[in-house]
Write a structure and sequence with these properties.
single chain, alpha+beta, 3 domains, 13-stranded antiparallel β-sheet, six-stranded mixed β-sheet
Length: about 850
């Protein structure tokens, strides 16, 4: 401490005549340089050690947790101290949430992982800094000076500064209490982004969670009970927390030894379907791609590398949450174990295993690849994530979170399709609804584990006969010869062919003559991808499938069959049959009749995902993630015939006959009884307490028109006939829709006639929104599309003016109202607030069955 005290005195006191400026600089350098190795073995080090207590003396009476990094717990003082024995060594730091909030919408789940960082401790005089190197920019070279030049060019970070309180023989102790008590998981930010108010950590109600402070040879776990407070907690917090203004969660800090040498990163290929890290390599050859991309994968090595099939040195073992109940437990074990077939195809014997976690094991321990069974207040997505070495892509811990309520949603979907509580009740001892739900959860288990072994979604698998568990499958329902709904083939079983190819790409250990030789290994990997393409399998992932305006005709969520139009027609037939018999037989005896609506929603809207798949054919483009020289075709548009068939199928969905509820349902669902309040999984209503038989149709109408007039889709439609005149133009599509919506005769039935008017209004309002609002009439999408939509609005304006005095009083009033709306938009001063906005919210759809 002598040099440190002298240095601080020098910079705060007048300069003394006997000290030169050079002396001051030298002293400053000695103080601010980090300690490394034995560089501190000088007299000054001894003086400094003499001024601090030894670690043994300082920690007397404290609880000592021995591990990768030793922890000393002072329960009387509420302090947590961390011993740093390997200063300057990189290790992995991970934050997680062993006990969560319970709200799906907020997303702070039990056993949720945060991000991982490579960090290191460096000592600077009386303090130690936890530094974060910048791994996004590197120099992969043996030239130390070149590596250092890149490291110095791009800023790293400091995660925290610590006061050094004791030291002994090259080791030092820091007070880490404040570090552990901070909101490292980002709970406050998540709550703010969710509109749940301004929260803060209350240190007076937070403390070390002593039972979960553990040490192991390769990792140290420190868990804290954190209490977050707010004067105005939001509704989602109030719905799940016993004390919304001061709720508590548990936050864990994991210090993990980086994997030992011996792992060889595998280069990524955009066609292979793997996640993985990437970085800019400034040591790469000039003219080459600076961006290095690795795949994420577990370390898996053969005992006999030269054998075609061999046992693994260390198999990949996943552990199922011991809190998972039967029969879900067995289903999850079965589905996860499917992956062993893929590893067998990659040349391994029994290399992928799944077991139930022992009761005394810690699911957050980095040594366990986990499948967690997670409870939330409402249904939501499941997740597959990993703790990965950011330097190489090596997966250290696979970590799955499965939402428990989704299996109940699967059961509900099956109840809507089968009406099993009446004359169609299943034989005693059987439960086809449970069978379907468990079939789905097996597939789900395989899906989420697939993410944790490095594999991305493949949303182009369903056209190839359910070729991947990494797709999002919808339940495949069909009709028997006597018109009954059949769910026996609702979900597939087993790993898919595409999945097997991907595991072979990522995990095959080639013979020594290939492994480690870059050119030979690249050739062997390319051969696997060529074999996959020859078998007819494509890979298209999230960015090309999730947006509603995406263009790929095969990349969809929750779809079935190779042809989306055919699949929609099949689904509409099943829907019609199930709706025709929908009623009391769809809920159990003793349940309030009002709960029929919960079962009706997923049945009535069950075709929503296939509708979206069909919409992608309009302005659609076939393409792949081709690379030069692989022989894959260039992008090509969906054929005119297929685009026209898609438009016809979408318009059929909007016909009054398809939108109408059966007569017995229009007024047959009573208001909600006490204790069964309304929630978001129900249809909207304009009728107050009573069931509204029109808003279900409004949900479908708004879905279809929002897809048709998606800005990206209208732009492609506006341009595609510039290059191929056989393809439908945007104006062709607009005219076809308007003719179908406005040109059809008014139905005889009053209910059906009102449904037709509902669709007509919705189409007109969607056109106005697509054209834009405000004085500048600004709108997203292309100028060409906006011009054509405005042109079409003028045509519709003329048609409404010509026909608004025809028909019944209801029809005339309806047409006059819409004529006035379009007229004001086109020819009178217009304010943005006048633009119609949807007043019916479509009930939540995704996820189906646990995704």
């Amino acid at each position: 401490m002598f040099l440190s005290r002298l240095h601080f005195r020098l910079i705060t006191s007048p300069r003394r005549p006997d000290l030169t400026a050079a002396s001051v600089v030298l002293l400053a350098l000695l103080v601010v340089s980090p300690r490394t190795g034995n560089a501190q073995g000088s007299a000054s080090s001894g003086d400094q050690e003499a001024s601090l207590p030894t670690i043994g003396a300082f920690t007397e009476g404290m609880t000592h947790v021995d591990g990768f990094m030793d922890v000393y717990l002072d329960m009387k003082g509420g302090k947590v101290h961390l011993e740093v024995a390997r200063e300057g060594e990189d290790f992995l730091y991970v934050v997680s949430l062993p006990a969560g909030l319970g709200s799906n919408d907020i997303g702070l789940d039990r056993n949720q992982l945060g991000g991982e960082r490579v960090v290191r401790f460096e000592r600077f005089g009386p303090k130690a800094l936890l530094r974060v190197p910048n791994l996004d920019y590197r120099a992969e070279t043996d030239n130390e000076a070149e590596r250092r030049s890149v490291a110095d060019a791009f800023a790293g970070g400091v995660l925290e500064g610590f006061k050094v309180v004791a030291e002994s023989e090259g080791r030092f102790l820091v007070d880490a209490t404040d570090f552990f008590l901070r909101d490292a998981h980002g709970v406050v930010d998540r709550l703010r982004r969710s509109g749940q108010g301004t929260f803060r950590v209350d240190p007076s109600r937070s403390a070390p969670y002593a039972d979960m402070i553990k040490g192991f040879p390769k990792n140290t776990e420190v868990e804290m009970l954190l209490t977050f407070t707010s004067d105005a907690p939001g509704g989602l917090v109030r719905s799940v927390a016993s004390e919304p203004g001061s709720f508590s969660v548990r936050q864990r800090h994991s210090f993990i030894e980086l994997p030992p040498p011996g792992y060889t990163p595998r280069l990524a290929d955009p066609r292979a379907g793997f996640f993985g890290p990437s970085f800019a390599d400034f040591a790469s050859d000039i003219g080459s791609d600076m961006r290095v991309r690795y795949i994420a994968r577990h370390r898996l090595e053969k005992k006999n590398p030269e054998a075609e099939r061999s046992e693994a040195v260390e198999p990949i073992v996943y552990w199922l949450d011991a809190g998972t109940p039967e029969p879900v437990r067995s289903a999850l074990l079965d589905g996860a174990r499917w992956w062993n077939d893929a590893f067998e195809a990659a040349g391994f014997i029994n290399a992928f295993q799944v077991r139930v976690l022992p009761d005394d094991a810690d699911p957050m321990d980095v040594r366990y690849n986990m499948i967690n069974w997670v409870h939330r207040s409402t249904r939501g997505w499941s997740y597959g994530s990993s703790v990965t070495d950011p330097r190489t892509g090596e997966i250290i811990k696979g970590h799955v979170l499965l939402g428990s309520l989704r299996v109940r949603q699967d059961y509900l979907i099956a109840e809507g399709l089968l009406a099993p509580y009446g004359e169609n009740s299943p034989p005693p001892g059987t439960d086809p609804m449970l069978d379907m739900a468990l079939a789905r959860i097996r597939q789900l288990s395989a899906h989420e584990v697939g993410h944790t072994i490095g594999i991305q979604h493949n949303f182009a698998a369903s056209p190839n006969g359910r070729a991947s568990v990494m797709d999002y499958p919808a339940p495949l329902a069909t009709l028997t010869a006597d018109g009954q709904v059949d769910l026996s083939q609702a979900y597939d079983a087993g790993i898919g062919e595409w999945d097997t190819f991907v595991v072979r790409y990522g995990y095959t250990q080639f013979p020594d003559s290939i492994q480690g030789h870059a050119a030979r290994e690249a050739e062997a990997l390319s051969a696997i991808l060529k074999e996959m393409r020859t078998a007819g399998y494509d890979f298209i992932t999230d960015a090309d499938a999730r947006p509603t305006g995406s263009a790929h005709p095969d990349a969809h969520l929750w779809d079935n069959l190779a042809d989306p139009v055919e699949a929609l027609e099949t689904q509409m037939a099943v829907r019609e049959a199930a709706l025709s018999r929908f009623g009391a037989a769809n809920i159990r005896d003793g349940r309030p009749v009002a709960l029929l609506e919960e079962t009706l929603v997923p049945l009535y809207l069950g075709h929503r995902y296939q509708v979206e798949a069909v919409s992608k054919l309009l302005g659609g483009v076939h393409y792949t993630y081709a690379v030069k020289g692989d022989g894959q075709p260039l992008p090509s548009p969906v054929s005119a015939q297929h685009q026209q068939a898609a438009l016809g199928a979408l318009l059929d969905v909007l016909s009054p006959g398809q939108l109408a509820l059966p007569p017995h349902l229009r007024t047959g669902i009573p208001p909600r009884p006490p204790g069964f309040g309304r929630h978001r999984e129900l249809f909207g209503r304009d009728t107050g307490l009573t069931f509204d038989p029109y808003t279900p149709a409004a949900s479908v109408s708004r879905l279809v028109f929002s897809l048709l007039l998606d800005p990206a889709r209208t732009a492609r439609l506006a341009y595609q006939d510039d290059f191929d005149t056989s393809l439908p133009s945007l104006l062709d599509v607009l005219e076809t829709v308007t003719e179908a919506v406005w040109g059809a005769p008014v139905p005889n039935g009053a209910y059906e006639a009102e449904l037709q008017r509902l669709v007509q209004r919705d189409w007109t309002e969607h056109l106005l929104r697509a054209a834009g609002s405000g004085a500048s009439r600004s709108a997203s999408g292309s100028p060409a599309a906006r011009s054509l939509i405005l042109y079409h609005l003028r045509t519709l304006h003329g048609a409404l003016q010509e026909n608004m005095n025809e028909g019944s009083p209801e029809t005339q009033a309806h047409r006059m109202d819409l004529f006035d709306l379009v007229d004001r938009y086109l020819f009178r001063p217009w304010q943005p607030t006048e633009l119609p906005t949807p007043d019916v919210v479509i009930p939540p759809g995704s996820p189906i069955g646990q995704e």
